[in-house]
Amino acid sequence: MVSQEPDLDDVPNRVSVRTDPDAGYATRYKTLHDAQHALDETSKTKAILAACRHVDADRRGKRRAIEYLADRLPPKELAEVCRRLSTSELQLDVGFDSAEEMLEVRVGEK
Predict the structure, then answer these.
(1) Which of 25, 29, 47, 78 has the CB geometry, 3.0–4.6 Å to 73, for a possible disulfide?
(2) Is 16 a member of any domain?
(3) What's the pTM value of the predicted model, to 2 decimals?
C-alpha cells in the first residue's frame, strides 16, 4: 500500500481530534488513555501520533516477516502465522500463484 502524502499546500494550521460526549465517548477516552500509557507518551495527541507511526512500522515489519518465512514454511503454516499476526484492524493474508511461482503478501487490506 502506497502512503498518501498530503500536499503541503493542503495541510491545515491546526488538526484536532474531537471526543464528543456521545455513547462511544467512554470507550474512545479509555482507548486514548491506554495508548498514551502503553506508548509512554505525555499526551493523548502524542499517543495518537505514536500509534499512527506504530501502525505503519507494524505493517511493514509484518510484511517483511511473512516474506522471510515464505521460503521457510509450508503454505498452511504460513497461512496460520498470518492468521495469528492479524488483528481486527490489520489483516494479513498470503496467496501463491503456482503458474508464476509468485507469493503475494497482503497486509492491511480489508
Answers:
(1) 78
(2) no
(3) 0.70
Phi and psi angles of residue 53, each rounded to the nearest 5 degrees, phi first = -65, -40
Give the Cβ contact number of residue 82 at 10 Å: 20
Per residue in 49-91, pLDDT tens? 999 999 999 999 998 998 899 889 988 899 899 999 998 888 8
CA neighbor of 73 nearest in space, from 110, 103, 37, 36: 103
- Asked whether residue 47 is assigned to any structural domain, the reply reads yes
Does the residue 11 lie in any domain? Answer: no
Q: What is the DSSP letter of 97?
A: E
Q: Catalogue the long-range contacts made by 26-33 (C-beta closer than 8 Å, 24 or more residues apart).
A: none
CA distances from 17 to 20, 48, 49, 102 (A): 9, 9, 11, 42
Secondary structure class of 82 (helix, strand, coil): helix
Give the structural domain span for 86.
28-107
